[in-house]
Amino acid sequence: MGLFDSPQAPTPPNPMATAAAQTGTNVSTAIANSYLGNTNQNTPQGSLNFDVTGNYGYTDPVTGQSYNIPRWTATQTLSPQYAQIQAQTDAAKMNMAGIANQQSAAIGDLLSHPLDTSSAPAMGDINLFNQVGAPQSQIGDTPGLQSSYASGGDITRGFDPNSAGQIQQQYGPSDNYSADRQRIEQSMFERVNPQLQQQEDRLRQQLADQGIRYGSQAYQGAYDPFNRQVTDTRLGIVAAGGQEQQRMDQMSAQQAAFHNAAQQQGYQQSLGLAGFQNQAQQQAEAQNAARAGFFNTAAQGQFDQAAARGQFYNAAQNQMLGLQSTKFNAANQQRNQALQEQYQQRNQPLNEIAALMSGSQVQAPNFINAQRTSIPTTDVAGLINQNFAQQNDIYKTQSTGFNDIMGGLLGAGGKIGTAMLSDVRVKENIAPMGSIMSTKGALPIYAYDYKDEFDDGKRHVGPMAQDVERLEPRAVKTIGGLKHIDRDKLGSIFGSA
Questions:
Q1: So what's the pLDDT on residue 465?
Q2: What DSSP designation does 379 have?
């Protein structure tokens, strides 16, 4: 195919052929893996050999291709020493199996008779519990409790609380000395305010002399200590006024408290007389209650004695019940022990036979798993499809390049219908770019500009009409005395219609 021949798409691979190739590769790989994995082994205990002892045929249902698959046989051989040990072990197992066979015939008569439990001790007698009497739930009659007694007399509940005089509940002036406090604070403020004003004037003048502007951060920072000083001074004055008010209030409170203390003393004397009278009444009340309590204590003592007798009787009944229960459990335990001994005598021959049989069982041979090495399977289908994809990419690239070049060759210059102006006489700045192969020879290609009224301001690449006419005269037309390339017929020299 020439450089500008129209490219053809590659033929896609046959899926059946690809599948057959892939299956053949997989079978070959599996056979190779079997040869690599079946490794012969030699150990001090014996050897393990793998041999091909036959083949079996496999036919691919899709392609009809037949394959011969090797069939392997693993042979394990013991060393001479271990073969002797195995023979001795097998002989011992044979002997134990024979003894078990003899013993099984001997116990046939034993198992044909049911187990006789008549010789075992009898169970405990449940009627022994009926010998225990019922618990005592009553303790007999006891004297009743005394719930009332004679009174010691009426208690004095009232007296005249005003007999000692009225208590003073208010003291001092109605404004609580607030006017005196304000007078003291006012006098102290009148004394301090001129000094504070002088200090503030000096501070403002000092800040103005330093060039610190009013309202700035530096001005505020310098003014804060003075404000705190003014605040502290005023708070101190208020605190001093409060202290003076509190002192005058405390003096009035002390005078009122002295008056009330005298009133309280007279009240307590009247209350003490009433309390003395009530104490005498209470003493008589307590004496009558003590006599009633003594009687009730005696009655409670008689009740406790009767209850103790009932509890003693019930404890004796519980002790007798425990004794009978112990006798019942001992009889049952003795019977269970005798039955267990009989069961053991009957089961012992069976256990011995089971032990002999477990030791005489044939042991299955142990096989060693060989280290298996795998060969990666060749992806034949992937390679074929990859080759097709590469060929298809080349086809796409060739098609794109062919279309781009043909579009550049045939899409430049003045056009009249399907004719393209390409006369060498209307071109300038011509520079050879090489040549392209066609079905009729080499066609030179040039880079050039159009002259005069044909100039479109672009640089063009393409053939000269005179060179195309030399290869294919039918592909050139003369229009207005200038040669044009017929694009419909130019494709014939590149192998396309």
A1: 95
A2: -
Q: What is the pLDDT of residue 339?
A: 83
Distances from the Cα of 18 to the Cα of 63, 327, 390, 391, 491, angstroms: 10, 95, 17, 17, 38
Query: pLDDT value at position 439?
Result: 82
Q: Are 172 and 252 in contact (CB under 8 A)?
A: yes
Contacts (Cβ under 8 Å, ≥6 apart) of 414:
420, 421, 450, 454
The ranges assigned to domains in the chain are: 15-96+364-376, 131-358, 411-494
Distance of CA 233 to the CA centre of its chain: 66
Q: The whole model's pTM is what?
A: 0.33
What is the side-by-side strand order in the sheet with 476-479? 415-416, 419-421, 482-486, 476-479
* Paired tokens of 455: 């100039």
The percentage of residues in the chain with a pLDDT greater than 70, rounded to a whole number, is: 83
Q: What is the DSSP string of 394-418?
A: HHHHHHHHHHHHHHHHHSSS-EETT
pLDDT tens digit string along 47-57? 988 899 988 88
**Residue found under tokens 């392209």:** 436
Answer whether 461's CB lies under 8 Å from 431's CB: no
For the cut 60, the answer to whether the pLDDT of residue 229 exceeds it is yes
196-223 pLDDT per residue, tens: 899 889 988 988 898 888 888 888 888 8
Work out the average pLDDT over 323-330.
85
- Identify the three-state secondary structure at position 477: strand
Which of the four pLDDT bands, split at 50, 70 and 90, describes residue 366? Answer: low
Residues 6+ apart with CB under 8 A from 278: 155, 156
Distances (CA, A) of 436 to 107, 225, 228, 473: 111, 99, 102, 18
Q: How far is the CA of 111 from the CAs of 106, 120, 417, in angstroms?
A: 10, 20, 121
Which pair of tokens denotes residue 214?
Answer: 């009013």
Give mean pLDDT, residues 407-413.
52
Q: How far is CA 71 from CA 32, 167, 377, in A?
A: 13, 129, 21
Instruction: Decide if 315 contacts 136 (C-beta within 8 A).
Output: no
**Residue at token pair 């069976």:** 350
